[in-house]
Amino acid sequence: MKTQQRIIWINCLVNGISTISTMFITACSSPPPEYFITTTYIYKNLTSETITISLFNEDNILLNEYIIYPSEEELIIIKDAGKIGLVQPFIFRNNKYGKTTNVIIDFAGNNKCLTFLEGQGILDVKSYDNFTESMYDKSNNTLIYTIDDSELNLSIPCL
């Protein structure tokens, strides 16, 4: 009788552990978001210089670079979980190196640069040419940032 009780006890223990493990795995895995917001960013180069937009994280690690030739534009589409609103510029969901905290725009022909820190210029949605408060009430938005001679005139020699 002891052997039979031991077998029953072990079976119950194994079943219990399996059930708890399954419940734990199911509870810990988060389902994909049901809603996505999309913000399309368009960067227009209206200068006569080729520009490079360099993205850096808080540790000054280069995350990405975009080269935009004169009279051309760069289109960047960013998606995030949510029903409505704007995705912040250069915030990518799967970026393992952290978020963009500063941006350097390099005007190649003049060796001049313009730097924006978090919440300034190109990193602030309110600085975009066509930004309106009503964009926060939509799930799909397009923001345009024009880089022209006014930015070139504000730039300083690159370090």
Account of the protein in words:
The chain is of the alpha+beta class. The protein has one domain. Helix content is 21%, strand content 34%. It has 2 helices and 8 strands, in the order αβββββββαβ. The strands form 2 sheets. Strands 3-2-5-6-8 form a 5-stranded antiparallel beta sheet. The longest helix is centred in the N-terminal third of the chain and has 27 residues. It starts with a helix and ends with a strand. The mean pLDDT is 85.
What's the arrangement of strands in the largest beta sheet? 3-2-5-6-8
Would you identify the regions where 5 or more consecutive residues have pLDDT less than 50?
Answer: none
Q: What is the distance, rounded to the nearest whole angstrom, between the alpha carbons of the first and last residues?
A: 84 Å
**How many beta strands in the DSSP annotation?**
8
Overall domain count: 1
Please describe the biggest sheet, giving its number of strands, its sense, and whether it closes into a barrel: 5 strands, antiparallel
Oligomerization state: single chain
Beta-strand portion reads 25-35%
Note the run of SSEs as H and E.
HEEEEEEEHE
What average pLDDT do the residues reach?
85
Helix count? 2
State the helical fraction: 10-25%
Shape: elongated
- The helix/strand class is alpha+beta
Rg measurement, Å = 25 Å
